[in-house]
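The material for today's practical consists of a large collection of protein records. Read left to right, the backbone structure tokens trace the chain's path through space. An example says more than a description, so a record of this kind follows:
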Amino acid sequence: MKVKYFLAALPLVLACGSLAAQDVVEIHGYQRSGVGRSSAGGEQVNFGLGINGGGNDFRLGNEADDYIELAVDVRAYEEGSTAFKLHFRPSFKEYYQERDATENAGLSYNNASFNTGTGIALRETWGEAVGVFGKSDVWKDASVWAGRRFYQRHDVHQIDYWFWNNSGDGVGIENINLGFGKLHYAFISEDFGNYNVVNNIAVPIMSGQQTMNSHDLRLTDIVTNHNGSLSLGVQIQKTSNTFNNKSNDNGGYRFDVMHKQGGIMGGDNTFEVNYSVGSPIWGWYNNGVDSGNKRTEVLDSLFLQPTKAFGICFVALYRDITFDVANTGQANSSQKSEMLGVRPKYAFTKHFALEGEIGYSDVKENGFYAAGSSDNHVIKETLAAEWSPAMSWWSRPSVRVFVTNAGWGGTANPNASWQTYQAPNFAAGKTSGYTYGAQVEAWW
């Protein structure tokens, strides 16, 4: 059987033209970019409490940044069922009065970006070997991988929230077929404390001060019913410090249960429950002293496409975090978050549609790093006219013009006034406003 050494021949293949190159290299990506203005004056702003990890809880007409990812997949070697593949994903982001939440992917360190207003990162660079463990039913589809990657992450597109996302630098083995499901193991390690902030710029100190090490074990593809499957996961974390410094030597664990149901009126439903103790309570990872903190999160995302012209997405989220007295200095400290949203889209022609979104977010805090309590909420409504290649709710690229209105309110922690939500650029005491603009969003 002829063996294809794609990687060694890649320069020659690329020189031979795009048709041949497609046999070796695939390029995927994601892009969003636009322009907007605010009723407060100045540029478009985001409305949101940051429940999803950002400041724009519901994303339609509510994203005031430019961002692009380019995912390059290279098939370096193939022989029968054996393959070696390489994956690269650089990204580019321009900020506006916000910081990106993905600190461990290189966009920012210690609240500072490398270039003022711009972040450039290598989000993924990893390789895998498939079909190298034999031809038995258990091992024939298994693969071993190493590098930096988005590791089996799951999201709700409507709120841009990656609710199960243990991504980073690591090594693992996946797709071990047990018959009733597939087994996966990964070791993921994140480092921090390697940068000082000087004039809001991250300056390397190259010390490798601390790492957060995670053992991630998952059992997926467990068939529960027709078009239904269950995934289970456990994640155990522990910090490691330079010179074995124990001052911040802690970790934690997390459990996930996720059920996906397809075949529902042209759509599907995702239901997920996760429970965390210690460092994983903020969802992705956290380097703080959180050993006694606990978090419970329940999430449901439902998408329906009952007709060719009409699609709709619903999301509901509830999160309850309780904090250890040693971490906050306050007894009975807690944070409770809620989100409810709906996003319908109706296509009048093959290429033109109207899309709307209504989203509600609420965060109640008690003794969160200071005595007292606060209760903040934001409700946001968007109407957008869109042009896309097809009628589907998911059709991209989408070029849209939009107007977004928001109202907000809340009570302040008496000892920490910053805990009262105030939309960016709006004067103190202002409780409503709007933005308008245009955006292109695409994936390919």
